[in-house]
What we know:
By secondary structure, the protein is α+β, with helices and mostly antiparallel strands. The protein is 27% helix and 23% strand. It has helices at 29-35, 67-74, 79-89; strands at residues 10-16, 19-25, 52-53, 62-63, 91-94. Strand 3 and strand 4 (62-63) form a beta hairpin. The protein starts with 9 loop residues before the first strand and ends with a strand.
Amino acid sequence: MSGTTNENSVKICSKANNQDFFVIAAPKMAEKWKNDKTVPLIDVVQSFDVFTTDSGGVSGEYIRPSRGILQSAFGTYDNEEVVRKIVTEGTEQRL
Length: 95
């Protein structure tokens, strides 16, 4: 992805275990990926980093949840699988 994070990026947010999780992605690419799985997931997301916030919502300081939190929320702590679930089930929001 080119450009700065804030100008050319969005959050894809998904709720699990009453906590919001999100990934940083290119605008409109999640919808494209949902309709065409030949689009590489790495073209959708900025990285395979999963974030939550200190408040548990989508605003606040971004933090990376522990493997235990990911396992409890998504049934796996494999970042690629968690990112795939967030992109599949989540909604796009502006940063």
